[in-house]
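Give me structure tokens for this 57-residue protein.
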Amino acid sequence: MAAAVIATRRGLICAKTTTVHDQAGTPIVVSPHSERPPGRTYWISGPVTQVFEGELA
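Here you go.
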């Protein structure tokens, strides 16, 4: 995801939504935030898995 953000900021790829894949092949979507300054804030979306549950005492 960081590589997609840096490539976008350097103009190596388009500044729109980009899909990257993690080592397991899961697609992760990186999109620029539409309400923030261009190239500064991004949304990252993809599948979510709960891996831990706890209670703060």
